[in-house]
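Thanks for the sequence, V.! I ran Endonuclease right away. Repeating your input here for the record:
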Amino acid sequence: MPEGPSLVILKELAQPFEGRTIAAAHGNSKAVPFDELPGQPILSLRTWGKHFLIELPLFTIRIHFLMFGSYRIDERKENSPERLGLAFDEGGELNFYTCAVQLIEGDLDKVYEWQADVMADAWKPAAALKKLRAMPDTLVCDALLDQTIFSGVGNIIKNEVLFRLKIHPASTVGALPAAKLRELVKQARQYSFEFLEWKKAFVLKQHWLAHTKRICPRCNIALHKAHLGKTKRRTFWCERCQKRYGPVL
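Predicted structure:
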């Protein structure tokens, strides 16, 4: 599943399409009224966490790439039908595959809490801290994946941030010392921007210390792997150097 930084890269690549007018639209999404799209200009391209937003005068098209979604700019995949494809009067095309497409009516500022997006200029760490303190019994592995708190954080960022901070993923939010909780919020954003730079340089995987790894680089012992928490996402951790805060479940 693409995480927030990957959506920022898509927005940057697609930025030249802002202001262009849709000449033709096609795809197999049942949510899109394709016949209404020709003649519509793209007002803006935005992201919120893992959502890619194409703002039009009529409505906004929301793209969520789920686990295996992808896109192509100025080209198409062979033998793979588009969920949504857009061609433009000024030239060029955007094509989206294996993704969820929905329409959003009205003002996006009333739909999205921009301050929850870890990649956004509007990000407010104090708001994230307030939400975390209101959920003391939540496991930190679930809290980091809560998109209402850390929009854009995905499983890779979760595993790497917890390893970096030496926090066991089964720790509870309320048991974390205040300084650790503040550091968790800080690193969720900081690692997301590091992720962005590494991905642009095609060296992201070279920087993984825990995610998909077998051996702890600090302790030189085997890492544990399990599907933890309510989210049941793959989690990698070291029992020696990642401290468990809170009761053992």
